[in-house]
Amino acid sequence: MTSRSLRHVLPWCLGLLLSCQAFAAELVDLRGRTVDVPDEIRAISIDDGRYLVALALILDDPVQRLAAWPRDINRIGDETYAQYVARFPRLKDLPQVASSAGAFNVESVLAAAPDVAVVSLGSGPSEAQVAQLEAAGIAVVFIDFFTHPFKNQEASLRILGELTGGQAKAQAFAAFRRERIEAISKGVAGLADAARPTVFLEAHAGRTGDCCSAPGNGNVGDYITFVGGHNIAADVLKGPFGKVNIEYIIARDPAVYIATGGPHLAKSGGLVLGVGYDAAASLASLHKIAARQGIAELGAVKHKRFHGLSHQLINSPIDIVAIEAFAKWIHPDRFADLDPARTLEAINTRFLAVPYGGTSWIDLE
Question: Which residues pair with 310 in a beta bridge?
């Protein structure tokens, strides 16, 4: 081949090489896997309805990029779902895939044919199922707002931003959250173990008569430790979540008791907060939860350190609101100036495509 020919061929080869490199991009997911994803991602599937809220933080239209979702409306609440459908009607007609709360279903994801399947760390597909999806040309990316939400929230939101073109807002929200995290960190710096109040968090309070579901090592327990509390459930639960019996709670008599609830507990007579509930209704249900046998005798009830929180604010991309509420409840003197309501207002104004409303937290007093 002549030198003249080479001058024509080499630029063509270089252009071909660059176009091949641009065809796919790499990212590292929350399992530490390096994943090749298409350079142009038209649609993703999600296996947790709460990821819809994450997308609403970083995209003006969080539904536009969805190929499928699990329709686990209980995780976001009927009222919140209705708000999303009113704003983005396409949501109600999206194909359904299995929720991370149950067994992963390969066939439903294959039928939806997303470019990328976004799945939950700790409850997503097996290695064989991942291979099956990848063989069909569907990239699989693990994120996490549940197992270790405190540690993994920012990285998970960043990944969603990379997959959907929402990088700028993802970075802006990460900076917003990080600023508030650092302020709390400074507030508890040097705190001795003896100065950490004992705390019990009952998840889905009143869902059943069998008390009590609670976070252990990981999950929301990480929030309690971070803001300077001692999570008593972590002393007996090895995993991120489990059950603690009422006798143990009575014996430990935690200084602070936090109950979570939401619209999904209305039928069972549990704690109701969040979208669709005003302060009076939420306070009435909190009094009912506090009056249960065994719970009513706790010091946290007698000293009015018994609180209710919307469950949709934990394991959530807007968990900073819950973290600030925890900090105020556990160390009211150190964090007298913290204002979770102002933080939520800023999130609604600056970020969320569908603002979060209703009574998000309540105090027994």
Answer: 261
